[in-house]
Amino acid sequence: MKNIKFKILAFFALIAMYSCSDDFIDVKSPDPNTEDFFNTEEDYQKALVAAYDMLQSTAKIYQLGEIASDNTLCGGQDALDTPGFQEIDDMIHNPVNAQLRDIWTWMYTGVNRANYIMEFKDKIDFPNKTSVIAQTRFLRAYYYFQLVKWFGPVPMAIDTRIQFGDQFDIDRTPVADVYAQIEEDLEFAAANLPLTVNETGRITKGAAQALLGKVYLFDKKYPQSAAALKSVIDSNVYSLLTTEAPLMWENDHENGPESVFEIQYSDIEGGSYDCFYCLEGNYAIGFNGPRGYQGPFFDFGYSFNVPTQESFDAYEDGDIRRDYSILDINQWLADHPDASYDEDAGYEQTGYFNRKYIARKGDLNLPDAALTNPNNTRVIRYADVLLMYAEASAKANSGNPTSDSYEALNMVHRRAFGLPVNTPDPSDYAGLSASSFEDVILKERRLELMGEGHRFFDLVRMGKAADYIPGFQAPKNNLFPIPIQEIQLSGNRWDQNPGY
Amino acid sequence: MRQTFLKILTFLCVAIASAQTVQVSGIVQDNSGVPIPGVNVVVVNTSKGAVTDFDGGFSIANVEVGATLSFSYVGYVTKTLKVTDSSKLTVTMQEDLAQLNEVVVIGYGTQTKKETTGAVSVVGSQDIEALKPQRIEQALQGQVAGVNITTQSGSPGGGATISIRGISTNGDNRPLILVDGARIEDLSVLNPNDIESINILKDATAGIYGVQAANGVILIKTKSGRKEMPLTVEYNAYGGFQQTTRKIPVLNATEYALIVNEALAAGGNEPPYTNIASLGEGTDWQDQVFENAAIQNHNIRLSGGGEKSTYSYSGGFLTQDGIVGGSASNFTRFTNSANYNLDFLKNFKLVTGIRITRSNKRNLPENSNASVLFNALNMNPTLGVRDANGDYTIADGLGAEVINPIAQIDDNYNRTKIFRLSGNASLSYDFLDHFSVQTNIQFNYSEVKGKIFDPVAFFGSGKVFNVLDEATVTLSDTYYRDYLFDNILKYENTFGDVHNVKLMLGSSISKETGEFKGGTGYGLPSNDPADATLENASRVQLFNRNTGRYPTFDSRLLSYFARAQYDYKGKYLFSAVIRRDGSSNFGPENKFGYFPSGSIGWVASDENFLKDSKTINFLKIRGSYGIIGNSRIGAFRYLSLLNGEGTYIFNNQEVIGTASGAIGNPEIKWEKQKTLDIGLDMKLANNKISVTADYFKRRTEDLLVVPQISGLLGVGGAPYVNGGVVENEGAELVLGYTNTFSNDLKLSVNYNVTYLRNEVKYVNTDTGVLEGGAFGIGQPAPSRMEAGHALGYFYGYQTDGIYQTQDEINNSAVTNVAPQPGDIRFIDQNNDGVINEDDKVDLGNPIPDATMGINVSLDYKNFDFSAYAFASVGNDIVRNYENNNPLTNSTVYRLRRWTGPGTTNEYPRVTGGASPNALFSDYYVEDGSFIRLQNIQFGYSFSDKVLENTKINKLRMYVSANNLFTLTKYSGYDPTASNGAPIGGGIDQGFYPSAKTFLFGINLKF
């Protein structure tokens, strides 16, 4: 009996011991720790893909940039549909704006993902390292360029992530210093990237040079801008589409000869409204289209970003750009009796839609159809490069256009009227004064780049926004306000942009 | 030979003498003559015994004359009797003083109610049987003081949120639920028929369970067999139907057309309806979606026991259609449970149990602007269900979110299947007179298989529900495994007959793991649900695509605890607990926390001055205080991990990158809840009246919150920080009255009420605010957590009537969107001349100020009657089931809209143009107070005479109605609506209302 008792107690003691070690709650995470990465080239490449990823979130930047300008009205379902857009359209925006906060946060995400690679750039060596660093620095420059355009002086971290706690110690960097950093990054990228790549969507030397030219233009360093853009032209990699120009915006003409830098989207992954920056599709496409559209060629949308009558009328007769830039829905319905749309639904409807960036039929239309459109964003087209070169080369020459300035401008202008691009024509611009030339550049940029999200920033950098955009107050509206929560969440150390 | 004969005779005589046994039978009743079923009858010093049947009857064969019978039953004084002959016995048992021997489960042990020093509530199986809940939560609603239940959905199998004594954290407020010691989170897998009792620990004495007990503990004990009990078979069943409790009055076709014409005209558009007179009533879309839905439940139980063992098996089947969509929202559940207990030796015992549940729930979209009810309310009433071709009509012009709700029901193939296996085993051994050791192991395994099938479907151009080109299916397989392993050593002794000492030492480890498998298949070959597999898809995206592995979690706890209990003559009671808890959710520095709690009690009625009181039969005053830790956040939040989204497209193919996820905070540590309770228990007037009163204060400190963080840190997710204090203060009162007027008439009434005040004291985030919830489309979050307000209060504009004239507008502060006459006027709180974010104020909160319940039961002869109601006072609710599209239908208050100066100061004009009316304001916040008659039941039990010649021991039939009516001012479907979120709860997005149910049932026992 005593023996049994001993055995039973021994049994209890044995199993009790099993549960008596503090090690039991030391559990190792199955995901790698952020501080224990970059051990192989693959790690760098994967981190680089994640840095590219935030490019897709800039769909909002181009859509909202267009809405902010005089080209389009906000539209949408009703006056309260996406208040952050409506207020910017009406130039009554204030520091409480969820859309501006998205842009701020998403661009800093891109910056941090690029800086993550830079922070660990010396950990190991591998053959493609220079290429990885060059792409990374391009991306960092691109994200900072968006930030400085929208918000002016912004907090800047270089080669180190902004980590929890750092947000309380980081001041806004003067605009000049931000531009200097962007320019340095892009010079490096341009010097170390190839002209052509095997993988569509990878950044090229041309993209880096073109973006650098654009950055210099914004930074008013015209000779440098002209030089950078000239090297894009001289590379002979890019050309203007001629007969195919009207088809340029169809999906099977993506990444074509006119495309210098294009953000890639896809319709092969479904999307959800819970996470816009996670989308692989271009959400702006679905939001811009005609509400309730049924019929051939196009697909429905949520009637945002609608061109004004004045934009439509800005095109001269014979300018082929009008009809591939702006969809006149009533004319379209007249031409296509089987088509229809919800004419009465939607806010601020003009009867015009942003034809470059509305949904086409034939996409996979995965749930949610509005979020999964594959249309790429043409961030820098060769036409833009030519127009920027025309402007920069003139401004580098005290504003007086050179023959190169005229030729670049006229190439774009000839194409717009179906003329041979390289053959001088009586309709060519010539003999303009410095200020008239700038006006022509502004006008041609508007007509050429209608719907692409450049107009607002062109007007601001030329100091002419108040002349064109109803309600625009200079200098207040030259910059957008820093979202109030962002100021609070960083310890109330930053001054708001003037006027807000 | 003769000697031999004598010897044999003597032997026989002895044999006969020693074998003089009789068959003992009889009836056990209480002192009013009411039979007591379930009384344990044991022949002392033998293994023989029986349990009285439903009519108090028992019978034991072969009992020696002169043997002693012992009769024992909870709440009664144990009685002994000598067997003299075989005549039928009538045994009258005396009720024990104040029924205070009722056993209360207190955590790793039991106590009598008299000894208990904590705030513990008990719900017995009678209460559960009376209510016929499909889910356990329904049995707790309004029954137990301090326990508040909000319904996440009235759909079959829909969930409910339990909160005990208020909302104490912005995180997980769920109490710890233990079924026979095994932790359970989804109560829908449990069959209420299997439950013997529910004990709810509401104060710091729950601290013995330590981690996860901060929100209280619910201990559920399932039924088992009894020793020496013959095989007993019970069959319980009910069937009936359910219907909606309410329809929201909306415009009929004629009214709709008039209002739409007016709205479009106000927005400067052409009125679409020209021939209004021909429209009539049109389609009542709510009549189309609501239906009478069937419900039936069957349960069979076999139980019994031998000399050293007991056994029980129960099988149940429930199937329930929904009042919306009928079989398209069906819930079906099969439950099996068995337990077996065996005494290897008198002091070495084994307890085992196993439960297997399968359920299948079909899911209709609900409680969002995609829900069937949302569509039924907003659908154009001038349209029929089907068009001239017999196809479903298209909801043209009603916005992207509104579609034909019948087409939606018809297109639903979503379901969730759950398989769950739980088991528990416990060994205990008593030694050296005063010591015992015990080891318990419990485990759960569950599989949740979800299917979301979207066949190609077209509901109208631009509808978010459309699936245009290819059918897709998402199949998810989620696996959860957990176990809990406790080891306990106890010492129990009495010194000098008056000093009672109990000591306990224990350790506990638990591990919870989960894995989320599955994927989405695109490009299915057809719309046939049978083809909806990943194998048939032309492209598959598995959930592991981002990282190459399926998401998993592994969360562990390790605890040591000690408890000391001491009482002097059962009159002065003391108890103290200390725990050391470790959680794998915290970093190396902060894994462990120490959590003490203690309680005292004084049984004043045992003192001389009250001992002989005729009025006060029992009085106990008790108090408890303790600190309990909470670590219920996700695993690894102290680390920054590479689990973010970072996919880009190269060569038109997705390339998956590596990005950081949520930011880790190595500093995070235990959230602490400090709980104070002072209470008294009293019995009055010959124990006919019982009173329990409690005051409590719960203060949660170092709240684990996820603050908003600077955008500079990116999108991966904010870290947890310890920052915030929430206080819940309140009082509970429970009054009971039980009286047996005669053999034929017995009445009992129970009433409970809980007052609660919730206040956030401090939020340590940079903005001092946490936000949540959603209102409208793209509007700022309506719910907040902020110091000085209730947790989850509603934040928006305060209104001041309707602008009657343009002059009034010109003289007022207005929003960005300029109002017109007939629009809502908002109050400029800071008088700065504009209405903006700074003018938003506290518009109420979803936490009730008081909740109460009342329970009446009346037995008269063979008839029984019971009724039960509960009420909630002071909870606010946000009406968010209306669409702002000018063409969607609306509720009838639009008929009272503003149409010109002086017409109304309450209801704004209708317009399709710009107006600030849809901004979140108190116009959308309603008082959600209500009183609901939750159950009324009338039963008849057949008398013994009728059943005499059958094998049936008990036969009862009843009719029952649940949720018969609700009195409320709230204009939505159901004022109990809430998703249960601490921040963002109480917002009604087209809630699936709780059904009104009519049942007929039968209880049968062999």
TrEMBL record, chain A:
It holds the Pfam family SusD_RagB. It comes from Gaetbulibacter aestuarii. InterPro entries: SusD-like_N (IPR033985), SusD_RagB_dom (IPR012944), TPR-like_helical_dom_sf (IPR011990). This is RagB/SusD family nutrient uptake outer membrane protein. PROSITE patterns: PROKAR_LIPOPROTEIN. Gene3D superfamilies: 1.25.40.390. It comes from the Bacteria. It is found in: Cell outer membrane. Belongs to the SusD family. Keywords: Cell outer membrane, Membrane, Signal. Residues 1-21 form the signal peptide. Residues 337-468 form the RagB/SusD domain. Coiled coil: none annotated. Residues 23-217 form the SusD-like N-terminal domain.
Automatic annotation (TrEMBL), chain B:
Residues 113-217 form the TonB-dependent receptor plug domain. It is a multi-pass membrane protein. Residues 1-19 form the signal peptide. Its main location: membrane. Coiled coil: none annotated. It is found in: Cell outer membrane. Keywords: Cell outer membrane, Membrane, Receptor, Signal, TonB box, Transmembrane, Transmembrane beta strand, Transport. Transmembrane segments: none annotated. InterPro entries: Beta-barrel_TonB, Beta-barrel_TonB_sf, CarboxyPept-like_regulatory, Plug_dom, Plug_dom_sf, TonB-dep_OMP_SusC/RagA, TonB-dep_OMP_SusC/RagA_CS, TonB-dep_rcpt-like. Residues 379-964 form the TonB-dependent receptor-like beta-barrel domain. Belongs to the TonB-dependent receptor family. This is TonB-dependent receptor. It comes from Gaetbulibacter aestuarii.
